[in-house]
Amino acid sequence: xSHPIRLKILCLLQDKELSVSEIKASVETTGANITQHxxxxxxxxxxxxxxxxxxxxxxxxxxxxxxxxxxxxQIFCTADTNKS
Length: 84
Hints:
The protein is an alpha+beta fold. The chain is 54% helix and 17% strand. It has a single domain (4-62), classed as Winged helix-like DNA-binding domain superfamily/Winged helix DNA-binding domain (Arc Repressor Mutant, subunit A, Orthogonal Bundle). The protein is built from four helices and three strands; from the N terminus they run H-E-H-H-E-E-H. It is globular, with a radius of gyration of 14 Å.
């Protein structure tokens, strides 16, 4: 999960499932690179996928991963207003 591209993918997948092409458009890297990172996440059980016609849709496999991502965003992505 610690790779920046995998973190971006997981941030995108928090709210809904997405196809590889939808992820590629947001992450701005090659389809092959996205597929490689998705395979790593899938092999670790972090995401699941389903095929619908010619598209493969990916989603986070466990609500605890979504909770983890939200907690990480709160800790690392928001300004700390209590600092002086």
